[in-house]
Amino acid sequence: MRWHAALRVPDHRRALPAPHWPSVRGRARADAGPLLLAAAVVAVVTLLAGAVPPLLTATAGDAVQDAVRRSGRDSDLLVHARLERDDGVNGGRMRTPTLAEDIDDFRDRAVDALGPGLRAAMRPPVATVTSPVLKITDGSVLRTFQLAYLADDRKSGGGPHVTWIAGGPPPPSAGGVDSRAEVPYEGGKPWRVQVGLSEADAAALNVRPGARIPLADDQGNVKDVQVSGVFRATDGADPAWGLAPSLLRPVSGADGVGTTRFTGLLSRESLPDARLAFGPDDLQRTVWFAPDPGKLTWDSAHTIGAKVVALKATSGSSGAIDGSLKWETRLDDVLRNVRVQVAAASAQASVLLTGVLAAAVLVLLLAADLLVRRRAPALGAARQRGVALPDLSIELLLESAVIALSAAAAGLALARAVAPGASWAWVIPVVLAAAVAGPAFGTLAAARATRDRRVPANRSARSWARHTVRLRRAALEAAVVIAAIAAFVSLSQRGIAPAADDAAGLGLGPVGGGALPASAPALGVLAGTLVLLRLMPAGTGLALRQALRSRRPLAVFGAARAAATSARVLPLLVLVTSAALTSFALTLDATAVRGLEDGTWRTVGADARLDVLPGATASTPGLVRRVAAAPGVGQVVAAQVTDNVRFAADSLVDSRRLVVVDASAFRRLLTSTPLPDAPALARLRGTGRGDVPALVRSDDGGPPEGTRLQLLRDGAPSIRLTVVGTAPAVGDAGDVVMVDAATLAAAGMPSVPDTIWVRGPGAARAAAANAGAADVVLRDDLLRARRAAPLTSGLLRLAWASAATLLALGLLGLLLGAAASAPERWQTLTRLRTLGLRPRDARWVAAGELLPPVLVAAVGGPLLGVLLARLTLGSLSLRTLTGQAADLALVLPWWRLALVTAALLATVAVVVPAESALRRRRRLSEVLRVGDG
Amino acid sequence: MSAAPSTEPNAGPLLSVRGVHRSFGAGPSAVHALRDVSFDLAPGTMAALIGRSGSGKTTLLNVIGGLDRPDSGTVLVDGTDVTALDEDGLSRLRRDRVAYVFQTFGLIPVLSAAENVGAPLRLARVPAAERERRVELLLELVGLADHARQRPGELSGGQQQRVAIARALAASPRLLIADEPTGQLDAETGLSVMALLRGVVESEGVTALVSTHDPTMVALADRVIRIADGRLEGQLGEQAGGQDVT
Ligand SMILES: Nc1ncnc2c1ncn2[C@@H]1O[C@H](COP(=O)(O)OP(=O)(O)OP(=O)(O)O)[C@@H](O)[C@H]1O
Ligand SMILES: [Mg+2]
After folding, report:
1. Which of A106, A599, A716, B21 has its CA 20 to 30 A from that of A862?
2. Which residues of chain B have pLDDT under 50?
3. Which ligand is nearest to the CA of B212?
4. Does one domain contain both B136 and B237?
5. Distance from C-alpha of A735 to C-alpha of A461, rounded to nearest angstrom
6. Per-residue pLDDT averaged across A542-548, rounded?
7. What span, in angstroms and rounded, lies between the C-alpha atoms of A918 and A897?
8. Residue in A553, A554, A834 closest to B106 by CB
9. Best mutation target, B31, B75, B121, B122, to test chain A (most A CBs within 10 A)
10. Chain A contacts of B83, Cβ < 8 Å?
């Protein structure tokens, strides 16, 4: 290319550089292609990097709602306060006819204490008053009974609506509504209380209105409770019922293994009698607030969490006599967990984004390099005509700044359309690279064009100059390697996600404490690529030597060109970096997806699980038979799974999940799933004498083998267990004790299976068809739900978007690199054509030149990406999203990695023919005439 | 193919150009670079093609060598009609029978001098041992045996052109086309390159067609072909009346 135009007269005496507009316009028009490409890169990356932070904030809000919704009653905010004293004037206890109003006052007081922010996020409160749990004293089955009063803040007073289908609402038992009767503290006969029973409870207890329920407390004191009526809930789904489910139907297991609880409903009128029927402090009054997930946002979650913590801190000690409020909730834990998850997700997102940004910056540098190569003759000519270097720089800067800023503005506008609140912060490095790289390279090229004439003639000066160049490069490489090491050290020491308490804000931002660890993978890839770059010339040199000796005549030409271009840093840097980061993102995605899957195996335990409803456990054996007979069902294993079973070890009692199962059947089930095998199950078959062997699993490691445990039972002797190993995980419970059903039965405790695991392709259908009296949990459903969880799906989508963008950047880099080396390549090819090289052979030679760096990237990139994924996996906290207990094992998405490789190679296969088709249009004579070099 | 100098079995011309026209563009702005050019060249001759700048020398050489196609007319090289060949045929022609030396040398920068010289032999699939022998011989012939390992960028212009000549001779072509081979060299070097060409025409028995501006070079040629405004000088008077010149 020659600079013909007559153009400008250099204007000397000027203080400020002034751009020469026609030159600026002419240059921009001549190189519209590369400039537009750079603009497109800036726009796309701006769109991605601009939209992710606000999307993440929105997702964080969804995640808060999701977590609170999932946590169910755990997120309820409870406040207790003692009832006021009811001392009468005569030294006894006086009936308080206004007790129901007191409860209403208490509820209102609690509402006031919430403060406006917290109150706005809560559903209407429900106050409850509950009695201690009593035993039903007839029969041998362990049945328990409780009295409960519900009062939501409806105008009507009292709890949720009911219809009385027999008898009526509980009246005051003696002396009328306003009775202020006084009873002695000790020794009086039991005070009668009237209660209503639900249909189900009444039927199970086989009582009618007017019947008395034979009850006694723990000390054996008889209670006088009479059924006033039988009711049916107008709306059984009213959340208030959830506070005492046994009001509506018998609930088994609530008071220990094999127990069934019933609850009698108190009315405003019978509540004062209940007070007198129990000790002065025996009734528990509580106000329940359930958070309304729909009203939670990421920001409000933060203030609410803080307010909840503050409320809990003001709670008086449990021994306080006064009526002070005692707050109780796990909402703050739930919110903290979400914060940790969000922090982890945003850190993971910043890892991905940093990778995209790094690749984008490199591609922009490569585009600038190409641009300057195209312009070098013109720039040099301009310099020789006397255009000042600052003028030239300003012109180039103007051009690239206009392009970078307008592209970024367009990208940001798009991002704003997708996600309101898109921000500049992440985009700055990309815009800077787009704006500055071109002018910087161009100025250097222009300066070199005039300086070249003064290349030192003497040998030592030349070698010294080479030496400084080499030193400068080594220093740069050392800086990258050191930064990568620092990033890795800080990543492995602190992990990617800040500690829960620091996780107040979204950790997503290009600056701040998280930036260094978040850039570890990108820096690691850069450092790895630099190593590859150092090896590259040696490799192509070797290839060239081989080619020189090879029988294939064409090999040498491609190899020679490849050896000549192998020293070029940017193209290989772009190729390897983007291939590696693409593979990294894909590996992360595959690992997370597999992790989710493993997590669902753990939660469900098989393809399907049937949780037999309490009270229907008698039907379990039949259910097992029916499910097992269904087509496509492999294993069916039934077990008794009971939570909160108390175990004593030495003098300590703690509660764990007890799993009673046929050990060998369970082991077969385990080995048929991806869940880890548990060989220790073989040790559960007892000898029939001595202690029952048990496997124990604990979050904190659990007791060592040989430890003795006692399985505590109400109303039955405890059973002695010996720990013989670690239990496999059963569901998401941390603490599990597992014993063999037959062995336990032999020791005197027959099991009542209530959980059925079903494995096999037809498991889901079989379980759903036979559900009847059981809740069905399908692993596929759970997996779908977990993948759809806001943070998880958001992160998986981001991983995909990043992988796609990175791959596109890599392919673009390949094209740019090919375009940059095209003139020299085709000069050589043209010259070879004059020697008799056939056109189609020219294509092979071109491919021979382009392939080596692409091969290095196609093979080395995925390897590097996987290596980095392996190195960083432990610190990336993926399991906070996948719901796994242990750290994830790396999963290699072979097919997708192979696709990355294939995409790169296929691009070469497209570039070469396209390039040669473009050049073929010109005759050899014209090419030679224009001057091929 | 054989590396031995050919001893011309058939008596006819090695190169026969007949009625070649070549114009660029169309309409009133068309440039008639070659107008009805016809001449023969006997085997073993070294002909100088001279003419002013823009007279059509390069165009003629390109047409003869099959780098460009004439609008009409035929070019027979060693009995083969160049104008009738397809791309592969032309490639074969360039590989086996016609070699070029360019003003700008046209060496392949990433290959050493020896590899440049060996390149046509590789394309012709000459066995390695024979190739190496011939490369050595040719470098010796052009006086660059000591520079075999150097890359073109590390050689002077004159040395590069010698390498280019050695390369042109490598595959023992019948016709050597040189377009201003001394154009970028100083007078003295140019003369030595020209003398070299003269020498190899003799020693290798090739036929050479060399374009040049330089009258001193002309002295070395067996025959001089003058071209002006797209016409051969001898033909100029002959055809002036019949030609419609705009
Ligand atoms: N591709 C082309 N398009 C248009 N005109 C052309 C083209 N190639 C050559 N010409 C014209 O053809 C004429 C002959 O050009 P040619 O290059 O053959 O001259 P030349 O004798 O080699 O000149 P020089 O000694 O300067 O190399 C010139 O007028 C030139 O402008
Ligand atoms: Mg010419």
Report:
1. A599
2. 1-9, 235-246
3. 1
4. no
5. 75
6. 84
7. 32
8. A834
9. B122
10. none
